[in-house]
Amino acid sequence: MQDQKLAKQLFKKSKTARYERVGRLMCFSALLLIMAVVIGIIVFIATKGMSTFLKDHIKMTDFFAGTLWNPGAKTPSGHAAVGALPMIVGSFLVTILAAVISTPFAIGTAVYMTEISPKRGAKVLQPVTELLVGIPSVVYGFIGLSVVVPFVRHLFGGSGFGILSGTFVLFVMILPTIVSMTVDSLKSVPQYYRQASMALGATKWQTIWKVVLRAATPGILTAIVFGMARAFGEALAVQMVIGNASLMPVNLVSPASTLTSVLTAGMGNTVMGSLQNDALWSLALVLLIMSLFFNLLVHFIGRKGAFSK
């Protein structure tokens, strides 16, 4: 009898094991909840976005290649004026230009913070970078409206609203993201890489250029892609300085629009289920697809970086 009690005690799960089981169950439940939310959002936006083509019978070629955006009107050919090409082009232009301008500044700042003057960089530049991250988008937009737009108007003429003003605002907004992630990438380069380069007779700048930056290239590319994703999805700040004209951009200083600016300006002024509302949901679907593309690109860069190591 006593032997049976001892056997039961030996095979009985401890309190720690029960807590571990409960913890695993809670974590798994949280994972399932997150997956359900993400899948639900994707399905909801995809269903709404496809209504333009399935319910309203708008051709995809007219939507993605059309240049006239006025869902309540008709084109000369008699089709609904839901051409999204001007907004798509505007979104890509401001995103790419902002990334091109901000990348050299971000890499230079990160190199200074990690390789040239780490102590001063940590004391001065890191708090500044964190401060830029915490500024609300509407503040960036208001500064752009008060400073950037008059500057562009004075320098290039026109109204001052356009792709160039949106690029300058997004440049400042995505700079902290690229800087912080580039700093992390440079810090992850093993110290013995630098020591080996110095031992072979390379100068400090040769070591930074030929060794450190090349070793950190996958991380830097990931930072740039994250910055582009941030710029592509920005709405309020860009809306305040780009001009909100749903026209194909003819130059960098003419009023234009992006996918997000049209969405924020028009979503509250449409009736659910109407063509105008369905067309806006289609723009949201394009934004979602681009977000998924940026995430897949980040994973691809990360895997290539892991393989190269």
In brief:
It is found in: Cell membrane. Helix content is 77%, strand content 3%.
| Beta strand count | 2
Could you list the spans in which at least 5 consecutive residues all have pLDDT below 50?
none
Q: Tell me the strand order in the biggest sheet.
A: 1-2
**What would the principal axes of the Cα set say about the shape?**
globular
Largest sheet: 2 strands, antiparallel
User: Percent of residues in beta strands?
Assistant: under 5%
How are helices and strands ordered from N to C? HHHEEHHHHHHHHHH
Helix-residue proportion: over 70%
Alpha carbon gyration radius: 26 Å
User: Could you tell me how far the N terminus lies from the C terminus, measured between alpha carbons in angstroms?
Assistant: 62 Å
What's the helix count?
13
Mean pLDDT: 86
